[in-house]
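As a representative case, the lines below give one protein's residues and fold tokens.
***
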Amino acid sequence: MTTAEPAAVSQPSLRQAILFGALLVTVDVFLLGQGALALLVGICLLFIGLPRTFLARKFVAVRARRLRNIAVYLAAVIAVFLLNAENNRIARSRADTLVSAVKAFHTKNQRYPNSLQELVPDHIDRVPLAKYALMFNRFSYYTSGQGASLFYVELPPFGRPTYSFTRNEWGYLD
């Protein structure tokens, strides 16, 4: 009685792997802006994909192609985290510019602006977007009898860095 070799499993082509990686980056950076999908994909690759590649007999014939595709997917995961970090750095820089403009407005008018649009054109040319993303890309500004605050979403749906003009410091809403 002989044991038959398991049949080779077809693997996505390099082009398909690159397209999937590009889709992951596009959706997770420019649409959602959070990295949750990339985190899930990365965990699956490290704890399921890699062990199966080396331990399952059916992948022996396609191991090199499978490892190549995993490397492409992991590169996409890393790109998501790097691009999200850059997006958040940009948002913080733009927020600091808005904080300075609100403070200048307050000094000049002895009150906080009712909206960020009130800063245009005397203090800023236009109200910038917080990030390069389709969702969670705007600054929020609120005034009350106790002062004013500015925030943006760093890690949706939570993770909102908030600047309190009365305390003159950054903090987090959640």
Notes: Residues 88-172 form a domain with the Pantoate--beta-alanine Ligase; Chain: A,domain 2 fold (CATH 3.30.1300). The mean pLDDT is 91. The chain has two domains: 14-85, 88-172. Helices lie at 14-31, 36-55, 63-109.
